[in-house]
Here is the input.
Amino acid sequence: MKAFNRVKDGILTKVSIGYMVHTFIEEGKTEDGTPIIRVTDWEPYEVSLVTVPADPSVGIGKSAANEPTTIQNQIIGRSITMTPEPENTNLISNEDAVLAERSRVNGIKKLETQYGVDLSDLVTNGTPLKELTPLSLKRLITMP
Here is the structure.
């Protein structure tokens, strides 16, 4: 829903598409000898709304009649082999990261209140909340 609102607000207006080329044919050459290649079989594997696209002529609300686009292939005399990037399943969204950090900081603040000590160094150095066991807190509190 947040992404949809960002589209409505005009923040996310561009599109990024990742794709894999399966087959293509060379249809001739341009006047300067650059091959003209037509992709005949391709597969999208990622479509994202972004603020900064690789091709600024592509985006939400754009019309094919607005700007004709000519794509010139710079590959001369070589076959194209494209392999998709491996999917990273360990990625988390920025929103999830912000929520996790807020939770960590709030947890440390609660411990400060509970034990009556300043634990701001733990916030600053990124100490995970799960590392703050009662024993480790006792050591922190009794340290000069």
Summary: The helical segments are 2-8, 94-115, 120-124, 134-142. Residues 94-115 form the longest helix (22 residues). DSSP finds four helices and two strands in the chain.
